[in-house]
Amino acid sequence: MVSQCGGRYPMQWRSGVLKVKIIRALVALNLLLHGMLVCLDASAATLREILEKNGRDYVLSNSSAVATQLDERDKFSLARMLMRNLRGGDAPEILIPLAQKGDVPSIQLLAMHFGTGKEGIKTSKPQASLWTSRLETLVSSGDDKNRKAALTALCEIYKDPNHLLFNKELAVKRCEEYYRLPDAPLGTQAASYMNPKSPLYEPVRAAPLYEKCFAVGDIYCKINFAWAGTEYLEIAKRVTKQRLFEYASLAIDVDSSVGLNNLGVFYLDGFGTPKNPEKAVELFDKAAGRGVVYALYNLLQVTFFKYAEWKDAPKTADRAMVLIAYYDYLSPELDRFDSVPFKEWVFSKGRLPSNDSEFSDFLRERAKAGSDTSACMLAGHLRKIGNLGESIQYAEMGRRTSNLKVQQWCEKELSRIDVLAVIKP
Predict the structure, then answer these.
(1) Is the pLDDT score of 28 beyond 70?
(2) Which of 20, 137, 138, 233 has the maximum number of C-beta atoms within 10 A of its C-beta?
(3) Against a cut of 0.70, is the pTM above it?
(4) Res. 20 pLDDT band, cuts 50 70 90
């Protein structure tokens, strides 16, 4: 069995894989108890009636039969329910007939998930290409609503390096068309121009867009700007930490799930505000309950690095593997390398870290032995606790890998350190 980062898993990894298969049976129960599984759209009345009569487990186990009783909107809601409850592999059976009838949300979902492998739908380039071509057809359909939906999805597909159809030229073409629509979100557009890894990278175009959306009081744009300011020098050079924190805090006003997770990072790192790990955990927990993938990752970091107490933290290695398995399930197939150090610990130790230094010591030992993922994760931890010199050392060590995705992980850590060097309090 070959790892995400090259090489072969040691014997304890192979036995651990068998263990994970058993643990996955516990995932749904554990996450349901902690409120991390999403059920259904409130508008799915018929599906709701079946759920109330027969129960959630019955619906999940008999989705094919249940689908025959539903109208098209309820079928889509059922497919989403399956995907969020660890049964994403059953969703295409419901979504493909809907997409064949021209259901745009189903076409979007299939095009995006067959290309990334998120939420249990296995990657398939033929299927991803088929449904992406249907989106291309919708662009010239003459229906403004469908055109917007198609351009939104195509922009995301072509600019996503984790998608099988990632294409820089098509990303520029379709994203620019999308951004020319009158109601295209300015914050999303500006972020695409500001990100050095984006096919649309052109920071000189980002600044006036941010100014424009600030002028009209776009709160989501400010939240977007706050997060970008922690990563990109072009922003960090002309703002303060305090201003970015103030913008990030607007996530509470509009109850933005992703924004709440990002605000948690501000509190955990002490960026523009005194460190408050307890508040960070509260925000991560809330965002994770709404399905924000990186909030789960942040909670895993809290669990292993012992940043703070989390009331629902796993107490055993098996329970930790439940969260790791769920995080991997929600993540793109090409973007699961960042959970590798957690698995290495669990499979080699069979327990959770007992203090706040044990896991970092383990990563340091693994990094010196050549583990690129351990080096990158350790670099992030050292940055969080203020040891920037050593953080740079391990980020540089990790970026020497031949794995492009891990290189980018370490490079992002270096970018955040560069921001800290120039941004004012």
Answers:
(1) no
(2) 138
(3) yes
(4) very low
| Amino acid code (one letter) for 235 | I
Q: Is 305 exposed, middle or buried (0-12, 13-18, 19+ CB in 10 A)?
A: buried
* Long-range contacts of 224-227, Cβ-Cβ distance < 8 Å, separation of 24 or more: 224/187, 224/188, 224/190, 224/191, 225/187, 225/190, 226/262, 226/266, 227/262
Q: Where exactly are the structural domains of the chain?
A: 38-184
CA angle 43, 49, 50 (to 5 degrees): 115
Task: Name the class of domain 38-184.
Answer: mainly alpha
Average pLDDT over residues 18-44: 46
Amino acid at 247: Y
pLDDT for 279 equals 97
H or E stretch at 70: none
Question: Can you read off the two tokens belonging to residue 136?
Answer: 């291309």
What does the alpha-carbon distance between residue 2 and residue 340 come to, in Å, rounded to a whole number? 12
Residue 63: φ, ψ to 5°? -60, -35
